[in-house]
Amino acid sequence: MSSLNVKDFFEGHAAEREAFVHAHVKGPYKIAPLTEDWASRRYFRVRADGRSYVLLESVPDHIPTATMGHKLSAFIKIARMLHDSGIHTPDILAVDEREGFVLLEDLGDVTVNRALDQESGQKRLYEAATDVLISMRDQIDPCNTLNLPKYKDSYIRKGRQRIVDWYIPAIRKEMNGDDLLSGYLAAWDDVTAVLPSPQIGFIHGDFHPGNLMLLPDDTCGVLDFQDAMWGPAAYDLVNLLENIRRDVPDEIKEEMIIRYGGGEEFRAWFRVMGTQFHCRIIGQVLRLAIVSGKSDLLKYMPRIQKYLIEGLKDPILAPLAKWMRQEDIDLTATDFDPDKIKPHIRSDAF
User: Fold this and answer.
1) Cα–Cα distance between 280 and 162 in angstroms, integer?
2) pLDDT 10s digits, 21-77
């Protein structure tokens, strides 16, 4: 369960950061930190002579990390493909892949997440975000030659097992047996065996309000798309409407599904993708708290648990709900002390 100490890496990377900015920004400049995310990246705002840029600093691709699917090379090629498809992404102004730097157009300070905090007009903001997904569906060809992974083969789908690898030992305070995971995955096979084939399209992979910038014309700019793949189109709308950081009113969820044009098959896969997503995230939060010391993420556990409890009421998920009952999985647990959990995590936990 060892991983790169990202904080130490970035602190030792200051000289390279300054050299990159100095090479690509004319005149005197100032650098100020913006944000970090769950992956091995962080962002800075660079101001110079009345202009503003965003510097993305990433652990370079050639350095192994515990964060899968977050390659800088993927960010760059997908950014160009989205731009060519008419999706508003930041222009790429300069790149140093070897050192892990990209200088980007600055899309401003107002994420959709921040706008949701500041105003009551939630519906307008969710409409703008949903319209981006509609544009992705209509303007990005699944036959595009861009070599993106398929959802069914991706680490994101594999991550659905994290509820078993991390959450179950956390609540039981004991290490999992050898056959627990196989029973869980068999339940998922039973769920999907009776479903129609999903609508396949471009999946952003991390489509939540914090990765969407509200632009002056009330449309959305898109960030953090390096997880992109081909797969069930419902995935991104789930991520938007069942995000772990905030509750979305049921009436807005329903209106956005209708706005997207989701029929019966889409709604079935919306529920399946949603519960797979929450099964991954509930374990990922614990993994990051235990492995990377990001215990602040544990504040999201009650909302994730609620999503799982509600989702499992859907008859489509009956095989999974039955497995959860048979294994007596408590989705209301509250004791998540990383130090107490760590000894119970198997060495092969994903």
Assistant:
1) 5
2) 999 998 899 999 887 655 578 889 999 988 999 999 988 888 866 455 568 888 898
Tell me, yes or no, if the pTM score tops 0.85.
Answer: yes
C-alpha angle 105-106-110 in degrees, rounded to nearest 5? 145
Q: What are phi and psi of 165, to 5 degrees?
A: -70, -30
Q: What residue has token string 């993420």?
A: 297
Token duo for residue 243? 């995000």
CA–CA separation, 154 and 145 (whole Å): 18
Examine domains 6-105 and 112-344 and report if their fold is the same. Answer: no
Instruction: Say if residue 145's pLDDT is above 70.
Output: no
Provide φ and ψ at 181, rounded to 5°.
Answer: -65, -40
Alpha carbons 133 and 282: distance in angstroms, whole number = 25
pLDDT surpassing 90 at residue 346: yes
The CATH number for 6-105, chosen from 3.40.50.720, 3.40.50.2300, 3.30.200.20, 3.40.50.1100, is: 3.30.200.20
